[in-house]
From TrEMBL:
Name under which the protein is recorded: Valacyclovir hydrolase
Residues in AB hydrolase-1 domain copies: 48-152
Stored PANTHER family: VALACYCLOVIR HYDROLASE
Domain Dienelactone hydrolase: residue ranges: 196-260
Superkingdom of this protein's organism: Eukaryota
Repeat recorded as keyword: no
GO molecular function, one term: hydrolase activity
Keywords, comma-separated and alphabetical: Hydrolase
Length: 281
């Protein structure tokens, strides 16, 4: 009896070790053209999903609950989170701005996935990462299989420009919102970088009539899942019907009390919704 119990315990430990190893994350840098891109990889499935963070965001600041829990819900997927060029640990180089910074991120993301031997992949994009995802899905239709976005729109409206300006001074942010970014960039550099982002984002309004990616939206073929926090203060409500009317294959889910960070505030429900969408044939 004691021997049998010992064997069972050994088997359980072995299974637990195998399970933990399968879903353990690995963080490393990948050479993409002339850039060193930091990624976090979890899971060992044949299919691929890339997590795209928001403004100044990185894999860990923006997607910790997804890195840790999505692979268990998606056993046939490898989950990859990246730090876009000039963000997080993908420094150097210094972040480059201009009216093509979203396009450059989309191109770099595609090159990253090709470098990893995963040229066909799905995208989970938040805020700026959602805009990058829309561009990637519209430009690289043969590569992007499914698209999931939230907190993102195809263009800027005046009230959003004012909202950006109102949050330019990071010293007025709550410590809970400010300190994770200060840990990544340092107090002074975070304040400087955020100011650069506000200028770069609002330039789309002054120089391109607010247009981020209207043309790309019209070209998207990938099934798309829009998640939305009903009380999101960062994007205008009009973006939802705009995207729903123009995307060819779209699904929508609303969090009635959700704000901008529904994937963090409602992580368990969010992850289940994302997994369910990705697992559908």
């Amino acid at each position: 009896m004691l021997q049998l119990r010992s064997q069972l315990m050994s088997s359980c430990k072995g299974l637990a070790g195998t399970f933990a190893k399968r879903f353990a994350h690995v963080e490393r840098k990948v050479k993409v053209n002339d850039l060193e891109i930091n990624i976090v990889v979890s899971g060992k499935g044949d299919k691929s999903v890339l997590l795209m963070p928001g403004a100044l965001g990185s894999a860990w600041t923006d997607f910790k609950p997804q890195i840790e829990h999505l692979p268990k819900l998606l056993p046939n997927y490898t989950v990859i989170a990246w730090d876009p060029p000039g963000y997080g640990k993908s420094i150097p180089p210094k972040r480059q701005w201009g009216l093509d910074f979203f396009n450059n991120d989309a191109s770099c993301a595609l090159d990253l996935m090709k470098t990893l031997g995963r040229p066909k992949f799905s995208i989970v994009g938040w805020s700026d990462g959602g805009i990058t995802g829309l561009i990637a899905a519209g430009r690289y239709t043969d590569n992007v299989e499914k698209l999931i976005i939230w907190g993102a729109g195809a263009y800027l409206v005046p009230e959003e420009v004012e909202a950006f300006k109102n949050i330019r001074d990071v010293s007025k942010w709550s410590a809970r919102m400010r300190e994770p970014m200060e840990m990544v960039y340092g107090v002074d550099r975070f304040a400087e970088l955020w100011g650069e982002w506000v200028d770069a984002a609002t330039a789309f309004y002054t120089d391109r009539n607010g247009d981020f990616c209207k043309e790309e939206v019209e070209k998207i073929k990938a099934p798309t899942f829009i998640l939305h926090g009903k009380k999101d203060p960062m994007i205008a409500a009009e973006h939802i019907p705009y995207l729903k009317e123009r995307l060819k294959d779209v699904r929508y889910h609303e969090f009635p009390e959700g704000k901008h960070n529904i994937h963090l505030r409602y992580a368990e429900e969010f992850n289940k919704l994302v997994a369910g969408f990705l697992l559908e044939k």
